[in-house]
Amino acid sequence: MADPRFFDNHGPFPLSELCARIGASLDADADPRSSVFDVATLETAGPEQLSFCASKAAARTLIQSQAGFCIVDKEAVTAPKPDGMTRLVSGSALHAFAAAARLFYPMHSTSAWPSSDAIHASARIGANVSIAPGVVIGPGAEIGAGARLGANCVIGRGVTIGRDCEIAGNVTITHALLGDRVHVLPGVQIGQPGFGFASGAAGHIKVPQLGRVIIQDDVEIGACSTIDRGALGDTIVGEGTKIDNLVQIGHNTRIGRHCIIVAQAGLAGSCELGDFVIVGGQVGLADHVRLGDGARVAAKSGVPPGDYPGGTDYAGYPAKLAKDWRREVASLILLAKRRKQDR
C-alpha cells in the first residue's frame, strides 16, 4: 500500500466498476458489489487490496498471498488460489494492474504543490538548520536538527531528513525517508519514478511507481547519482553504505550495510546486496541479482540475474568466479600467442 505522505488514494472502487475500467473479467463466484480499497504486492496485500500475478514464478506463490483481489493472466487461471481471494482475469495482468494503479493514484508522478511559498507552512524545521537560497520544502516535510540544505535543493512533500544531514546544492529528494548524518552530494536525484513499463503492440504503458526510498544512517551518495523509488515496495540503502558519483540504483533494489558502490555502476530493479558488498566502477547488475554478504565485483563486470554467494570475488562479462575469469583470460592470451607464432 502506498504511503499517504506521498500519494493520495482515490479509492475505494466497486469491483464491477474496476473490472469494467481495466478490461478484466471476474470469477463466477465473485461478488461484483465488493469494494477494493488499494493496490499492493502479492506479499503485502490484505483482504481489501488488489494485487497481480503476471509470471509463472508468482503463480507458484499465489496460494500464500493474503490479497483479497488479484489480477491474473489467463494462463494462470488454473493455479491454486487461497480461500477468500477473488480473481480478476486479464489477457495481461501487468497492463490491467497498471490501469488499476492509475485509477487509485492518478497523481502518482508529481505531487500537486498547494502553495506558492518556497517553504510550506506545514513543513517542520528542526533547530539550527541551515537553508541556502533557492531551497524549496514541500508540505509535511520534516528536516532534522543541524541539517544543512544547499542552494536550490527541492525537498518534496512528506520527505523526512534526519539530524545533521548535509544535502548539497541542486539535489531533489521526493518520496523518501533519510536517516541521520546522511551526506548527499550535488545533483543527486532521490525518489524519482522507477523505469517500469507494461509493453505491448500498442506501445509502452507506464506502471505507476508507488513506493519509497529509505536511506539509513551515515550513508553518503555521490554527485549526480540517482536512486529510484520502489514500484510498490521500497528501495533501501543500508546504514554506512558509500555510493560514488554517477551511480544508478533501480527501483525496489535493497542494499545492505556498509557497502561500497563505485562510480558509473548501474543496478537494475529488484537487486539485493548483502552487507559489506563492493561493486566496482562501471559494473552492470541485471534485475533480480542477489549478492551475498562480502561479495566483491570487479570493475566493468556484467552480472546476469541469479544468486551469487557472499565472501567471493566475481569478474568478467558475463560475471563468474574471478579465479575462473582470470584463468580464461590467461588461456586466451596464450592461445593468441601460439597462433601468432604459427604464422
Structure classification = alpha/beta
Shape annotation: flat
Proportion of beta-strand residues: 25-35%
User: What does the radius of gyration come to?
Assistant: 23 Å
- Helix tally? 4
CATH H-level homologous superfamily name of the largest domain: Hexapeptide repeat proteins
Low-confidence stretches: none
The total of beta strands comes to 39
- CATH architectural grouping of the largest domain: 3 Solenoid
Number of domains: 2
Q: Work out the helicity level.
A: 10-25%
Mean pLDDT: 93
Query: Briefly, what CATH class of the largest domain?
Result: Mainly Beta
Strand order in the sheet with the most strands = 9-12-15-18-23-26-29-32-35-38-39
What about the largest sheet? Answer: 11 strands, mixed
Say what the CATH topology of the largest domain is.
UDP N-Acetylglucosamine Acyltransferase, domain 1
First-last Cα distance? 67 Å
Could you describe the 3D structure shown?
With 343 residues, this protein is an alpha/beta fold. The protein has two domains: 13-104, Udp-n-acetylmuramoylalanyl-d-glutamate--2,6- Diaminopimelate Ligase, Chain: A, domain 1 (3-Layer(aba) Sandwich), CATH 3.40.1390.10; 175-323, UDP N-Acetylglucosamine Acyltransferase, domain 1 (3 Solenoid), CATH 2.160.10. 14% of the residues lie in helices and 30% in strands. It has four helices and 39 strands. Strands 9-12-15-18-23-26-29-32-35-38-39 form an eleven-stranded mixed sheet, covered by helices on one side. It has a nine-stranded parallel sheet with strand order 10-13-16-19-24-27-30-33-36, with no helix packed on it. Strands 17-22-25-28-31-34-37 form a seven-stranded parallel sheet, with no helix packed on it. The chain is flat, with a radius of gyration of 23 Å. The termini are far apart.
